[in-house]
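Minutes, project check-in
Item: structure for the 362-residue chain
Input as provided by the requester:
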Amino acid sequence: ITGTTVSAVTITKPATSATLTIADTGSLITSGAYAITLTATGTTGVTLPTSGTLLATTGSGTGLSGVCLTANNLSDVTAATARTNLGLGTGALLVTDTDVTLAANSDSNVATQKAVKAYVSTKSASVVGSARNAKMSVTSASATATFTAAEIIVKTALGGLMQVRSSYSQSINLGTTGAGGMDTGAAPVSGFVSLYAIAKPDGTTSILACAVATSTAIIYGGANIPSGYTYSALIGVWPTDSSKRFVVGIQNGDLFSGAENVVLSGGVQTSYTSVSISGAIPPNATYVVGYAAASYSSAGGYGSIAADSSGTGAFDTGTVASGIAMRDVLILPIITAQTVYYKTSNSGTGISLVVTGYKFQE
Protein backbone atom coordinates (compact mmCIF):
# COMPACT_ATOMS: atom_id res chain seq x y z
CA ILE A 1 0.00 0.00 0.00
CA THR A 2 1.59 3.21 -1.04
CA GLY A 3 0.16 6.60 -0.07
CA THR A 4 -3.47 5.69 -0.49
CA THR A 5 -6.74 5.52 1.33
CA VAL A 6 -8.28 2.21 2.23
CA SER A 7 -11.77 2.05 3.74
CA ALA A 8 -11.51 5.68 4.93
CA VAL A 9 -8.12 5.05 6.58
CA THR A 10 -5.35 7.22 5.13
CA ILE A 11 -1.92 5.68 5.01
CA THR A 12 0.97 8.05 4.45
CA LYS A 13 4.03 6.80 2.68
CA PRO A 14 7.22 7.11 4.79
CA ALA A 15 10.13 9.07 3.38
CA THR A 16 12.34 6.01 3.16
CA SER A 17 10.95 2.87 4.71
CA ALA A 18 8.94 1.70 7.74
CA THR A 19 7.38 -1.48 9.03
CA LEU A 20 4.03 -1.94 10.75
CA THR A 21 3.63 -5.47 12.04
CA ILE A 22 0.44 -6.79 13.60
CA ALA A 23 0.75 -10.23 15.11
CA ASP A 24 -1.49 -13.01 13.95
CA THR A 25 -5.00 -12.54 15.46
CA GLY A 26 -3.85 -9.16 16.84
CA SER A 27 -5.69 -5.84 16.39
CA LEU A 28 -4.93 -2.12 16.24
CA ILE A 29 -8.12 -0.44 17.44
CA THR A 30 -8.94 3.17 18.41
CA SER A 31 -11.99 4.22 20.37
CA GLY A 32 -13.50 7.68 20.56
CA ALA A 33 -12.83 10.80 18.57
CA TYR A 34 -9.20 11.16 19.68
CA ALA A 35 -6.06 10.92 17.64
CA ILE A 36 -3.23 8.58 18.65
CA THR A 37 0.26 9.71 17.78
CA LEU A 38 3.21 7.41 18.56
CA THR A 39 6.57 9.15 18.13
CA ALA A 40 9.96 7.59 18.67
CA THR A 41 12.94 9.85 18.02
CA GLY A 42 15.62 7.66 19.55
CA THR A 43 17.65 5.00 17.83
CA THR A 44 16.30 2.26 20.09
CA GLY A 45 12.92 0.65 20.07
CA VAL A 46 10.06 1.43 22.44
CA THR A 47 8.01 -1.50 23.67
CA LEU A 48 4.50 -0.86 24.94
CA PRO A 49 3.26 -2.95 27.91
CA THR A 50 0.79 -5.74 27.24
CA SER A 51 -1.49 -4.55 30.07
CA GLY A 52 -2.18 -1.48 32.16
CA THR A 53 -2.94 2.13 31.26
CA LEU A 54 -0.86 4.60 29.31
CA LEU A 55 -0.75 8.10 30.83
CA ALA A 56 -0.71 11.25 28.73
CA THR A 57 2.09 13.79 28.93
CA THR A 58 1.45 17.38 29.95
CA GLY A 59 2.58 18.47 26.52
CA SER A 60 6.01 19.62 27.61
CA GLY A 61 7.42 16.16 27.38
CA THR A 62 9.03 16.48 30.81
CA GLY A 63 6.45 14.83 33.01
CA LEU A 64 3.20 12.94 33.25
CA SER A 65 -0.05 14.60 34.24
CA GLY A 66 -1.21 13.62 37.74
CA VAL A 67 1.81 11.54 38.77
CA CYS A 68 5.31 12.14 40.08
CA LEU A 69 8.12 10.82 37.97
CA THR A 70 10.77 8.63 39.61
CA ALA A 71 13.20 11.52 39.31
CA ASN A 72 10.87 13.65 41.42
CA ASN A 73 9.83 11.01 43.99
CA LEU A 74 10.93 12.24 47.48
CA SER A 75 12.00 8.78 48.54
CA ASP A 76 14.33 8.44 45.58
CA VAL A 77 16.21 11.73 45.74
CA THR A 78 18.49 13.62 48.10
CA ALA A 79 17.09 15.87 50.80
CA ALA A 80 18.21 18.96 48.87
CA THR A 81 16.45 17.79 45.68
CA ALA A 82 13.31 16.89 47.62
CA ARG A 83 13.21 20.39 49.14
CA THR A 84 13.58 21.89 45.66
CA ASN A 85 10.80 19.68 44.24
CA LEU A 86 8.51 20.83 47.04
CA GLY A 87 9.36 24.47 46.45
CA LEU A 88 11.17 24.82 49.76
CA GLY A 89 14.40 26.13 48.33
CA THR A 90 17.83 24.56 48.49
CA GLY A 91 18.71 25.25 52.15
CA ALA A 92 20.07 22.52 54.44
CA LEU A 93 17.56 20.03 55.82
CA LEU A 94 16.38 20.86 59.38
CA VAL A 95 17.14 17.88 61.63
CA THR A 96 15.11 16.94 64.73
CA ASP A 97 17.28 17.23 67.84
CA THR A 98 16.35 15.48 71.12
CA ASP A 99 19.46 16.50 73.06
CA VAL A 100 18.21 18.13 76.28
CA THR A 101 21.45 20.14 76.60
CA LEU A 102 21.11 21.67 73.08
CA ALA A 103 24.87 21.18 72.79
CA ALA A 104 24.91 21.35 68.96
CA ASN A 105 23.99 25.06 69.04
CA SER A 106 23.04 24.66 65.38
CA ASP A 107 20.92 26.75 63.02
CA SER A 108 19.98 23.62 61.07
CA ASN A 109 18.70 21.52 64.00
CA VAL A 110 15.20 21.84 65.46
CA ALA A 111 14.88 20.85 69.14
CA THR A 112 11.83 18.79 70.05
CA GLN A 113 9.31 20.09 72.56
CA LYS A 114 10.59 17.68 75.22
CA ALA A 115 14.17 18.77 74.65
CA VAL A 116 13.27 22.46 74.93
CA LYS A 117 11.19 21.86 78.05
CA ALA A 118 13.99 19.92 79.72
CA TYR A 119 16.60 22.52 78.76
CA VAL A 120 14.55 25.43 80.06
CA SER A 121 13.93 23.60 83.32
CA THR A 122 17.69 23.39 83.97
CA LYS A 123 17.96 27.15 83.65
CA SER A 124 15.24 27.86 86.20
CA ALA A 125 16.34 29.34 89.51
CA SER A 126 14.32 26.93 91.67
CA VAL A 127 16.27 25.14 94.41
CA VAL A 128 16.00 21.36 94.62
CA GLY A 129 14.04 20.26 97.67
CA SER A 130 12.13 23.53 97.86
CA ALA A 131 8.57 22.87 98.95
CA ARG A 132 5.38 24.67 99.93
CA ASN A 133 3.15 23.40 102.73
CA ALA A 134 5.24 20.24 103.15
CA LYS A 135 3.74 18.19 105.96
CA MET A 136 3.68 14.72 107.52
CA SER A 137 2.06 13.69 110.79
CA VAL A 138 2.26 10.45 112.77
CA THR A 139 -0.15 10.31 115.73
CA SER A 140 0.83 6.82 116.88
CA ALA A 141 3.95 4.80 116.04
CA SER A 142 3.44 3.29 112.61
CA ALA A 143 5.33 1.89 109.62
CA THR A 144 3.12 3.96 107.30
CA ALA A 145 2.52 7.66 106.82
CA THR A 146 1.48 10.12 104.12
CA PHE A 147 3.59 13.07 103.04
CA THR A 148 1.84 16.00 101.37
CA ALA A 149 2.93 19.28 99.82
CA ALA A 150 1.41 21.90 97.56
CA GLU A 151 4.56 21.86 95.44
CA ILE A 152 8.00 20.21 95.48
CA ILE A 153 11.08 20.75 93.28
CA VAL A 154 12.93 17.56 92.23
CA LYS A 155 16.06 17.32 90.07
CA THR A 156 18.30 14.75 88.41
CA ALA A 157 21.35 16.28 90.08
CA LEU A 158 22.46 19.54 91.62
CA GLY A 159 22.14 21.96 88.72
CA GLY A 160 20.51 19.22 86.65
CA LEU A 161 17.14 18.74 84.99
CA MET A 162 14.16 19.84 87.10
CA GLN A 163 10.52 19.00 87.60
CA VAL A 164 7.92 20.84 89.65
CA ARG A 165 5.54 18.33 91.25
CA SER A 166 2.33 19.99 92.38
CA SER A 167 -0.38 18.62 94.71
CA TYR A 168 2.12 16.09 95.99
CA SER A 169 0.61 13.35 98.18
CA GLN A 170 2.44 10.06 98.62
CA SER A 171 2.16 7.23 101.15
CA ILE A 172 5.29 5.59 102.53
CA ASN A 173 5.51 2.12 104.06
CA LEU A 174 8.73 1.21 105.88
CA GLY A 175 7.79 -2.45 105.69
CA THR A 176 8.16 -2.65 101.90
CA THR A 177 10.90 -1.92 99.37
CA GLY A 178 10.81 -0.02 96.10
CA ALA A 179 8.76 3.04 95.17
CA GLY A 180 6.60 3.91 98.18
CA GLY A 181 8.89 2.01 100.59
CA MET A 182 12.52 1.53 101.61
CA ASP A 183 15.12 1.66 98.87
CA THR A 184 16.51 -1.66 100.05
CA GLY A 185 16.44 -3.79 103.19
CA ALA A 186 14.70 -2.85 106.42
CA ALA A 187 14.35 0.43 108.25
CA PRO A 188 16.90 0.97 111.05
CA VAL A 189 16.11 0.14 114.67
CA SER A 190 15.87 3.31 116.80
CA GLY A 191 17.57 5.35 114.12
CA PHE A 192 16.59 7.75 111.34
CA VAL A 193 15.32 7.42 107.77
CA SER A 194 15.63 9.96 104.98
CA LEU A 195 12.54 10.58 102.86
CA TYR A 196 12.87 11.48 99.18
CA ALA A 197 10.33 12.67 96.65
CA ILE A 198 11.15 10.80 93.42
CA ALA A 199 9.88 11.14 89.86
CA LYS A 200 10.29 9.68 86.38
CA PRO A 201 10.90 11.77 83.25
CA ASP A 202 7.26 11.20 82.24
CA GLY A 203 6.06 12.82 85.48
CA THR A 204 5.26 9.66 87.45
CA THR A 205 5.78 10.57 91.11
CA SER A 206 6.43 8.55 94.26
CA ILE A 207 8.31 8.59 97.58
CA LEU A 208 11.32 6.63 98.82
CA ALA A 209 12.86 6.01 102.25
CA CYS A 210 16.40 4.99 103.08
CA ALA A 211 18.59 4.72 106.16
CA VAL A 212 20.51 7.91 106.86
CA ALA A 213 23.67 5.82 106.56
CA THR A 214 22.74 5.36 102.88
CA SER A 215 21.92 8.95 102.02
CA THR A 216 21.19 12.29 103.62
CA ALA A 217 22.12 14.29 100.52
CA ILE A 218 19.71 16.73 98.89
CA ILE A 219 19.60 14.39 95.86
CA TYR A 220 19.23 10.68 96.66
CA GLY A 221 22.78 9.35 96.90
CA GLY A 222 22.16 5.62 97.24
CA ALA A 223 22.42 2.91 94.60
CA ASN A 224 18.87 1.58 94.81
CA ILE A 225 16.51 4.18 93.42
CA PRO A 226 13.61 2.31 91.72
CA SER A 227 13.91 1.67 87.99
CA GLY A 228 12.95 4.60 85.79
CA TYR A 229 13.11 7.21 88.56
CA THR A 230 15.80 9.79 87.80
CA TYR A 231 14.55 12.84 89.74
CA SER A 232 14.70 13.15 93.53
CA ALA A 233 14.80 15.59 96.44
CA LEU A 234 15.20 15.19 100.19
CA ILE A 235 11.90 16.11 101.85
CA GLY A 236 12.11 14.62 105.34
CA VAL A 237 14.23 12.92 108.01
CA TRP A 238 12.31 10.92 110.63
CA PRO A 239 13.27 8.96 113.75
CA THR A 240 12.33 5.28 114.01
CA ASP A 241 11.57 3.28 117.15
CA SER A 242 12.77 -0.14 118.32
CA SER A 243 10.18 -1.75 116.01
CA LYS A 244 11.45 0.12 112.92
CA ARG A 245 8.38 2.35 112.82
CA PHE A 246 7.97 6.10 112.51
CA VAL A 247 7.87 7.66 115.96
CA VAL A 248 5.05 10.00 116.94
CA GLY A 249 5.73 13.45 115.57
CA ILE A 250 4.90 16.10 113.01
CA GLN A 251 6.89 17.75 110.25
CA ASN A 252 6.06 21.21 108.95
CA GLY A 253 8.38 22.36 106.18
CA ASP A 254 11.84 21.22 107.27
CA LEU A 255 11.09 21.31 111.01
CA PHE A 256 10.45 18.03 112.82
CA SER A 257 8.85 18.11 116.27
CA GLY A 258 8.52 15.05 118.47
CA ALA A 259 8.54 13.85 122.05
CA GLU A 260 10.96 15.13 124.70
CA ASN A 261 14.38 13.50 124.58
CA VAL A 262 16.71 14.21 127.52
CA VAL A 263 20.28 14.37 126.19
CA LEU A 264 21.98 16.02 129.18
CA SER A 265 20.96 15.96 132.83
CA GLY A 266 22.66 18.07 135.48
CA GLY A 267 25.92 18.43 133.58
CA VAL A 268 28.66 20.27 135.44
CA GLN A 269 31.66 21.65 133.51
CA THR A 270 33.28 25.03 134.01
CA SER A 271 34.57 25.12 130.39
CA TYR A 272 32.79 24.21 127.20
CA THR A 273 32.53 20.44 126.85
CA SER A 274 30.97 18.49 124.00
CA VAL A 275 27.95 16.25 124.39
CA SER A 276 26.59 13.92 121.71
CA ILE A 277 22.91 14.26 120.87
CA SER A 278 22.98 11.61 118.11
CA GLY A 279 20.00 9.82 119.62
CA ALA A 280 17.87 12.94 119.23
CA ILE A 281 18.83 14.52 115.91
CA PRO A 282 19.96 13.03 112.55
CA PRO A 283 23.47 13.58 111.14
CA ASN A 284 22.26 16.20 108.66
CA ALA A 285 20.33 18.31 111.19
CA THR A 286 21.16 22.00 110.85
CA TYR A 287 19.42 23.22 114.03
CA VAL A 288 18.42 21.59 117.31
CA VAL A 289 15.22 22.67 119.05
CA GLY A 290 14.35 22.09 122.69
CA TYR A 291 14.85 23.69 126.08
CA ALA A 292 17.56 23.99 128.70
CA ALA A 293 17.37 24.35 132.50
CA ALA A 294 20.01 25.13 135.11
CA SER A 295 20.01 24.13 138.74
CA TYR A 296 22.36 25.22 141.51
CA SER A 297 22.60 25.37 145.28
CA SER A 298 23.44 29.04 145.62
CA ALA A 299 22.31 32.19 143.88
CA GLY A 300 24.22 33.57 140.90
CA GLY A 301 24.94 30.37 138.99
CA TYR A 302 23.93 29.69 135.36
CA GLY A 303 24.57 27.27 132.53
CA SER A 304 25.30 27.74 128.80
CA ILE A 305 24.64 25.66 125.68
CA ALA A 306 26.67 26.52 122.53
CA ALA A 307 27.34 25.29 119.02
CA ASP A 308 31.09 24.87 119.54
CA SER A 309 33.82 25.13 122.16
CA SER A 310 34.25 28.83 121.43
CA GLY A 311 30.72 29.54 122.62
CA THR A 312 29.21 30.27 119.18
CA GLY A 313 25.50 30.94 119.50
CA ALA A 314 25.72 30.48 123.29
CA PHE A 315 22.39 30.21 125.06
CA ASP A 316 22.39 30.94 128.81
CA THR A 317 19.87 29.72 131.36
CA GLY A 318 19.61 30.26 135.13
CA THR A 319 17.20 30.10 138.04
CA VAL A 320 15.02 32.61 139.82
CA ALA A 321 16.24 31.46 143.23
CA SER A 322 18.42 28.81 144.79
CA GLY A 323 17.15 25.37 143.82
CA ILE A 324 14.39 26.71 141.51
CA ALA A 325 15.22 26.08 137.82
CA MET A 326 13.85 27.86 134.77
CA ARG A 327 13.09 26.29 131.40
CA ASP A 328 14.32 28.36 128.47
CA VAL A 329 13.48 27.52 124.85
CA LEU A 330 16.53 26.69 122.77
CA ILE A 331 17.07 26.95 118.98
CA LEU A 332 20.74 26.33 118.29
CA PRO A 333 22.66 25.90 115.00
CA ILE A 334 24.62 22.68 114.56
CA ILE A 335 28.25 23.11 113.53
CA THR A 336 29.58 19.64 114.36
CA ALA A 337 27.13 16.92 113.38
CA GLN A 338 24.91 15.75 116.27
CA THR A 339 27.00 17.64 118.83
CA VAL A 340 26.50 20.61 121.16
CA TYR A 341 28.67 22.10 123.91
CA TYR A 342 27.82 23.12 127.47
CA LYS A 343 29.38 24.69 130.52
CA THR A 344 28.29 25.97 133.93
CA SER A 345 29.37 29.08 135.80
CA ASN A 346 30.64 27.12 138.80
CA SER A 347 30.95 23.59 140.11
CA GLY A 348 27.80 24.01 142.17
CA THR A 349 25.65 24.55 139.08
CA GLY A 350 24.28 21.87 136.73
CA ILE A 351 22.57 22.20 133.35
CA SER A 352 20.11 19.93 131.56
CA LEU A 353 19.16 19.84 127.88
CA VAL A 354 15.97 18.35 126.44
CA VAL A 355 15.59 18.02 122.64
CA THR A 356 12.10 18.24 121.12
CA GLY A 357 12.95 18.61 117.44
CA TYR A 358 15.33 19.72 114.73
CA LYS A 359 15.63 21.33 111.29
CA PHE A 360 17.33 19.42 108.49
CA GLN A 361 17.61 22.03 105.73
CA GLU A 362 19.35 25.38 105.57
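Outcome recorded: Residues 199 and 205 are 4 Å apart (CA to CA).
No further action items on this chain.
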